[in-house]
């Protein structure tokens, strides 16, 4: 099984829900997880708060993409390095 | 190889059809302050020994085999990328892969504990995703249980003479699933159901976690095999060294 097929399958698995499942925003877990806990333990008060919270969705997106970009950059660099090494014998 | 390919495709599609209609909820790390303090403490204490062993193993690798640094960086980067991606799932909500399988197979589960914890720290401090008090619990599920399940299932697959790539796929997939099963256990222990107790709460958490997570686990398995294929082509010598080390450690 070559990489192209594997990547295609992975992409398919990600895109398929967008096509198949309607009427949803694909919300992230966080808020919903809190809801579930409050349902099971209505009197629970979070006893600790985050030090720093991104001041909005845009900044959060920025930081998440930064995380992915750094990782992808490193992977690309290393893959290139190894390929070059192999090519040069 | 052909037969394996079919096996994977069929599993993917079956799972898809099975779960395309399940109820929608979520799956992620436990938020800051959302574990009672004594549970937060318990998970911190359980997690720390793994972390220290991992730190020691990692320092040893870097000292004795500096040429492995590059692969360590690759495993770290892989986890960084994958855990930054919130991916839509068939349940109508999003969750993310963990990326811990690859590193666990390369360097053993303990090293991955350190790497996974670094990623969780980044997300807890900068993204308000997860938290410091819940870091012990989140690290125990994603950076301890995940890598160990990956490692054990890989070894089991190899014993059963399953092909290398399929073993890698299964290991990465189970690592992802196990992470979220563990998270469900942690939440259930802290918030037992009024009628069903811990078990009832576990079923509640686990069902919603698992369904969202299964397609993502498959995606993660596929992506891990992609990187593995690459490593297999270009870094034969490093992989051989790691394999010998692993064999001598047993």
UniProtKB/TrEMBL annotation, chain A:
<feature type="transmembrane region" description="Helical">
    <location>
        <begin position="62"/>
        <end position="82"/>
    </location>
</feature>
<keyword id="KW-0170">Cobalt</keyword>
<dbReference type="GO" id="GO:0009236">
    <property type="term" value="P:cobalamin biosynthetic process"/>
</dbReference>
<dbReference type="Pfam" id="PF02553">
    <property type="entry name" value="CbiN"/>
</dbReference>
<keyword id="KW-1133">Transmembrane helix</keyword>
<comment type="similarity">
    <text>Belongs to the CbiN family.</text>
</comment>
<keyword id="KW-0169">Cobalamin biosynthesis</keyword>
<keyword id="KW-0171">Cobalt transport</keyword>
<dbReference type="GO" id="GO:0015087">
    <property type="term" value="F:cobalt ion transmembrane transporter activity"/>
</dbReference>
<keyword id="KW-0406">Ion transport</keyword>
<comment type="function">
    <text>Part of the energy-coupling factor (ECF) transporter complex CbiMNOQ involved in cobalt import.</text>
</comment>
<keyword id="KW-0812">Transmembrane</keyword>
<keyword id="KW-0472">Membrane</keyword>
<keyword id="KW-1003">Cell membrane</keyword>
<dbReference type="GO" id="GO:0005886">
    <property type="term" value="C:plasma membrane"/>
</dbReference>
<keyword id="KW-0813">Transport</keyword>
<dbReference type="InterPro" id="IPR003705">
    <property type="entry name" value="CbiN"/>
</dbReference>
<protein>
    <recommendedName>
        <fullName>Cobalt transport protein CbiN</fullName>
    </recommendedName>
</protein>
<comment type="subunit">
    <text>Forms an energy-coupling factor (ECF) transporter complex composed of an ATP-binding protein (A component, CbiO), a transmembrane protein (T component, CbiQ) and 2 possible substrate-capture proteins (S components, CbiM and CbiN) of unknown stoichimetry.</text>
</comment>
<comment type="pathway">
    <text>Cofactor biosynthesis; adenosylcobalamin biosynthesis.</text>
</comment>
UniProtKB/TrEMBL annotation, chain B:
<comment type="subunit">
    <text>Forms an energy-coupling factor (ECF) transporter complex composed of an ATP-binding protein (A component, CbiO), a transmembrane protein (T component, CbiQ) and 2 possible substrate-capture proteins (S components, CbiM and CbiN) of unknown stoichimetry.</text>
</comment>
<dbReference type="GO" id="GO:0043190">
    <property type="term" value="C:ATP-binding cassette (ABC) transporter complex"/>
</dbReference>
<keyword id="KW-1003">Cell membrane</keyword>
<dbReference type="GO" id="GO:0015087">
    <property type="term" value="F:cobalt ion transmembrane transporter activity"/>
</dbReference>
<feature type="transmembrane region" description="Helical">
    <location>
        <begin position="135"/>
        <end position="154"/>
    </location>
</feature>
<protein>
    <recommendedName>
        <fullName>Cobalt transport protein CbiM</fullName>
    </recommendedName>
</protein>
<keyword id="KW-0170">Cobalt</keyword>
<feature type="transmembrane region" description="Helical">
    <location>
        <begin position="70"/>
        <end position="87"/>
    </location>
</feature>
<keyword id="KW-0813">Transport</keyword>
<keyword id="KW-0472">Membrane</keyword>
<keyword id="KW-0812">Transmembrane</keyword>
<dbReference type="GO" id="GO:0009236">
    <property type="term" value="P:cobalamin biosynthetic process"/>
</dbReference>
<dbReference type="Pfam" id="PF01891">
    <property type="entry name" value="CbiM"/>
</dbReference>
<feature type="transmembrane region" description="Helical">
    <location>
        <begin position="201"/>
        <end position="231"/>
    </location>
</feature>
<keyword id="KW-0732">Signal</keyword>
<comment type="similarity">
    <text>Belongs to the CbiM family.</text>
</comment>
<feature type="transmembrane region" description="Helical">
    <location>
        <begin position="166"/>
        <end position="189"/>
    </location>
</feature>
<keyword id="KW-0406">Ion transport</keyword>
<dbReference type="InterPro" id="IPR018024">
    <property type="entry name" value="CbiM"/>
</dbReference>
<comment type="function">
    <text>Part of the energy-coupling factor (ECF) transporter complex CbiMNOQ involved in cobalt import.</text>
</comment>
<keyword id="KW-0171">Cobalt transport</keyword>
<keyword id="KW-0169">Cobalamin biosynthesis</keyword>
């Amino acid at each position: 099984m070559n990489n192209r097929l594997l990547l295609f399958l992975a992409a398919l698995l990600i895109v398929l829900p967008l096509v198949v499942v309607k009427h949803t925003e694909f919300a992230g877990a966080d808020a919903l997880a809190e809801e579930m806990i409050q349902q099971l333990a209505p009197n629970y008060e979070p006893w600790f708060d985050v030090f720093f919270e991104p001041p909005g969705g845009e900044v959060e997106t920025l930081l998440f993409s930064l995380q992915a970009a750094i990782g992808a950059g490193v992977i690309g660099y290393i893959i290139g390095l190894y390929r070059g090494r192999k090519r040069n014998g | 190889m052909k037969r394996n390919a079919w096996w994977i495709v069929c599993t993917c599609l079956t799972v898809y059809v099975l779960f395309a209609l399940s109820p929608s909820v979520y799956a992620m790390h436990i938020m800051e302050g959302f574990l009672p303090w004594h549970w937060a403490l318990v998970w911190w204490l359980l997690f720390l020994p793994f972390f220290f062993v991992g730190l020691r193993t990692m320092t040893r690798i870097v000292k004795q085999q500096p040429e492995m640094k590059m692969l360590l960086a690759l495993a770290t980067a892989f986890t960084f990328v994958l855990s930054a991606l919130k991916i839509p799932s068939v349940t109508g909500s999003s969750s993310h892969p963990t990326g811990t399988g690859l590193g666990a197979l390369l360097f053993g589960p303990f090293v991955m504990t350190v790497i996974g914890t670094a990623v969780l720290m980044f997300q807890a401090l900068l993204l308000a995703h997860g938290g410091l008090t819940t870091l012990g619990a989140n690290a125990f599920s994603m950076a301890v249980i995940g890598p160990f399940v990956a490692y054990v299932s890989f070894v089991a697959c190899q014993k059963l003479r399953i092909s290398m790539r399929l073993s890698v796929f299964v290991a990465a997939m189970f690592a992802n699933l196990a992470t979220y099963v563990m998270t469900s256990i942690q939440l259930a222990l802290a918030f037992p159901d009024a009628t069903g107790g811990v078990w009832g709460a576990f079923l509640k958490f686990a069902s919603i976690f698992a369904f969202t997570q299964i397609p993502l686990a498959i995606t993660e398995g596929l992506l891990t095999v992609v990187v593995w294929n690459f490593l297999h082509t270009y870094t034969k010598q490093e992989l051989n060294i790691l394999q010998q080390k692993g064999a001598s450690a047993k």
